Amino acid sequence: AQTVTQSQPEMSVQEAETVTLSCTYDTSESDYYLFWYKQPPSRQMILVIRQEAYKQQNATENRFSVNFQKAAKSFSLKISDSQLGDAAMYFCAYRTSGTYKYIFGTGTRLKVLA
Amino acid sequence: DAGVTQSPTHLIKTRGQHVTLRCSPISGHKSVSWYQQVLGQGPQFIFQYYEKEERGRGNFPDRFSARQFPNYSSELNVNALLLGDSALYLCASRPYFSVDGGYTFGSGTRLTVV
Q1: pLDDT-derived band of residue B52, with 50, 70 and 90 as boundaries?
Q2: What radius of gyration do chain B's Cα atoms show?
Q3: Which residue of A has its CA nearest to B50?
Q4: CA nearest A40: which of A110, A114, A102?
Q5: Dihedral sign from CA coordinates of B25, A108, A58, A74
Q6: CB < 8 Å to A93, chain B
Q7: Is A107 on the interface with B (CB under 8 A)?
């Protein structure tokens, strides 16, 4: 069975600084997708960034980028120039290609300090 | 365009009661999924529906059931409520055939069982 592990329950970052959130996963599949979702106090899960396993190039969305290490089964999220609005719970998620079931990690609470 | 809407936003039920949660997907989205998010955990997959048919089911007891209507809205039903059913219930929708852009989530229904 696939699993997703986020080992950092909470992280803090100074405004305008850079922070990296860690995620590891376990799967025997070769074709899958990985995601980072943000959940602010409004509770809505918002897609931050996604990565297709077959792509070697790391995904980037503005201030958000990932470091995808397929052999190590690692998928970390880097947030550059952190802003107060980035404060939220961040969830790493996995989906095997051909299915629509997402497997989420336990989340990392990110605090941004002014 | 309206996003994924869920109702009610909060409710309190007594152990042993029945509850129905409702979800309206984004216009044009034919696939709806339900997730349970217990406090401090990541969302857990409950069901996925497409064209009124169940396409996937998570590891939840038969007390949990769902259905999808011709207008693609969906209901999640939980019978014989237990204290452990207290959670945030998230609905998510997506077009069935699409390059994976991830689900669009609603803001959830907070269920408290007392």
Answers
A1: confident
A2: 13
A3: A100
A4: A110
A5: negative
A6: 42
A7: yes
| A&B contacts, CB < 8 Å | 61
SS3 for A45? coil
Q: Touching check for A35 and chain B: CB below 8 Å?
A: yes
pLDDT at B100 over 90: no
Q: How far is B102 from chain A (nearest CA, A)?
A: 7
What pLDDT is recorded for position B103? 83
Range in A11-15, A39-43, A79-83, B85-89 with the lowest mean pLDDT:
A39-43
Amino acid A67: pLDDT: 97
Beta strands in B1-114 (DSSP E): 5-7, 10-13, 19-24, 31-37, 44-50, 53-57, 64-68, 74-78, 87-94, 104-105, 109-113
Residue-level pLDDT at B1: 59
Q: Does A62 touch chain B (CB under 8 A)?
A: no
B49: closest CA of chain A, how far (Å): 10
As a whole number of angstroms, the distance between CA A54 and CA A69 comes to 11
